[in-house]
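lol ok so funny story. i was supposed to be doing the assay writeup but got distracted and ended up predicting the structure for this chain instead. priorities right. anyway since i did it might as well share w the group, maybe its usefull for someone
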Amino acid sequence: MDTANPKAGAAPSVDGDDGDTVGSSDEIAVTLKLYASLGVYLPAGAKKNESVVKASVGTTARALLDTYNVPPEACHLVLVNGVYQAPDDRCIMQLADGDSLAVWPPVAGG
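and the output, tada:
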């Protein structure tokens, strides 16, 4: 959790299909995309492994994933707007309105 901003870990909510928009300047909308086995952590109503969720300004990628109980060890590949986020950066880089957070689990096989 981002300790510099007390709202960073605040629980986001799902942006419903009823046309709601982010209600205040204290909130941002982020497209959360969870692939493969991580799809079980998406909020109800998610389509095609993604959901638009609301979060507080200052929320980090890790704080958003924590809100949906996505285990850190299950987050192998994390991209924000297509740019790789190293594990240490996930707790620092704050998401912005309109960002896309995509996460894949570790893959085994051969």
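The first strand starts at residue 27 and ends at 34. The first helix runs from residue 61 to 67.
back to the writeup now i swear
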